[in-house]
Amino acid sequence: MSSLTIRNLRKSFGSVEVLKGINIEARTGEFIALVGPSGCGKSTLLAMIAGLESVTSGEIRIGDRLVNSVAPKDRDIAMVFQSYALYPTMTVRENITFGMESRGVPKPQRDEAVKRVAALLQIEPLLARKPGQLSGGQRQRVAMGRALVRDPKLFLFDEPLSNLDAKLRVDMRTEIKKLHHRVGKTTVYVTHDQVEAMTLASRIAVMHQGEVQQFDEPQTVYDRPANMFVAGFMGSPAMNFIPATLTTDAEGRPAVSLKVGDGAVLALAEGAVPGTTGRDVILGVRPEHIFRYSPELKASKKSLATVEAPVEMVEPTGAETIGLMRFGDLEVTGRFDPDEAPRMGETITLGIDMSHACLFDPTTRKLL
Amino acid sequence: MADAALARVHDREAAAAFRRHYLSRLAIYGLLSIFAIIYLVPLLVVVFNSFRDQAEIAQNGLIAFPRSFAFHAWADAWSSYCIGGTCEGMKRNFMNSLWMAIPATILSTLLGALNGYVLSKWRFKGSEVLFTLMLLGVFMPGQIALMPWAFILGKLGLTNSTYGLILVHVIQGISFTTLFCRNYYVSIPDDLIKAARIDGAGLWRIFRRIILPLSPPILIVTVIWQFTGIWNEYLFGVVFTSGREQPITAALVALTASGTNVRNYDVMSAAVLIGALPPLLVYFFGGKYFVRGLTQGAIK
Which residues of B touch A72 (CB under 8 A)? Predict the structure, then answer.
């Protein structure tokens, strides 16, 4: 059963089309992340699900009900805003109960609901305070409390963590995940942070220029990105893109010959040959699949290709060291274990794990 | 050694800076005091004269320190001085002004708040054009509207009545109150309205529970602006009312023009002060909110 169905949804502001035929379906209890760079239309999409923006064409269904022209309050949704949008003149308690008050829920029932939510979010001591007297993290909790108290069909989150400092953001991320496990409500979560999307979502919709580029489970989106945009957007540091041509190596196995640097020939993993010799492709390699070559590495990886490159820059982060290697006029990023990190100026022999490599078409930019 | 030398130079410069600072402060405060005195002298003369005896004023001239001290000018001006044949003092006109200014202030402020709320938070096709048109009213001098108002009040049967003046002032004031409130409400985040809509609140509940509780700073500004403006307004009062129905501003002019050849400066002074008291009190109690409210939007 699906609790949110979006079919061929379009939105135009004047002559500008910001959403160009969106199709997304969320099963009951699912956590969907809408991720993309700013201006990709993800917030507009969320506002349309909430009923705060009108639908130009297409369908939005919550449960089985078509809600295209249903008022926000009648859609059985709750929303957490990026700015929290707490009512500044009301106490935390009044903030949480305002929705029930507007709907005419009797007071004893309201008190009961506040008690339940306050216990769930551990905000009991804050109930009498005003939003201005709360820290960022506390406001975040109250905003979630206001959504949770409603017990709606659908939760909507609009970049709820982007106003928090880095450490708190990670804590709250974990908490949202725990909360979702406990409450089990269908959730749509908008973020521009691919890490948030990866960690929280059961499925991710990557959006760009008003279109869903890929809608799939996080690991699939990461391992098999549908196109070069998704590949470059998900993951940090970003995937390396190296122009290459299909060929065969000395042993006659299918391979790619790099069009940069000294034209190294890298054998492809088995069963990954999209076309005939001479076809232009773009080789996509994630930084964590680039290693310092060693015989032990060779033994542990099934399809390892080697290439030599000078090291241009080294950035230690503690847990890992980022190395920038020069491939002709390209810079290729690798993530190394600090113990085997490259040194600046060294010419390193790299082992590339080709079983994780992706090949893209240079013109359509789609995965081959 | 080097340290000590540095410290000395530093100290000398600090002292010079301090002297410069001190002198410039002195100049600023001196100049401000002079302007304040120039501004306050007329008020002082009027206050003095309201407590001086008419005989003394006649003897020592209009500008002099009081030799006598009497309250009767205030009592006369309030309840027994004769203006144009009736000897009831300013009392009735004062009450006229109150009955005009208070309802007109409240109504125009409320309407302005509602307009501002809708024009900033519930925009519709053409709302910006509407707002621009309403702004024209801010720049339109009142006398342009004299003839149309005379016509309308005549049709409505509200000439020579306080109700007529209330109507005129409410309508004339809406441009200003709308401008004030709309500009203030623009700075209230739209997310609040969206959140409230999802919470099930409609136009009115959002206004009452979210917008109005956030409004005191701008409402105080609007109330002070409207009250002083309406109280001090003269043109509509003198044109649309006469005699006992006149507001105090119009009555004050009638007072100076009333027939006797003796000019009772003591009573006139007291009458002027009575007429000036309410706006002064409003500003006295609300002034600090006024400045705060006017600058609030600019700083944030």
Answer: 194, 197-198
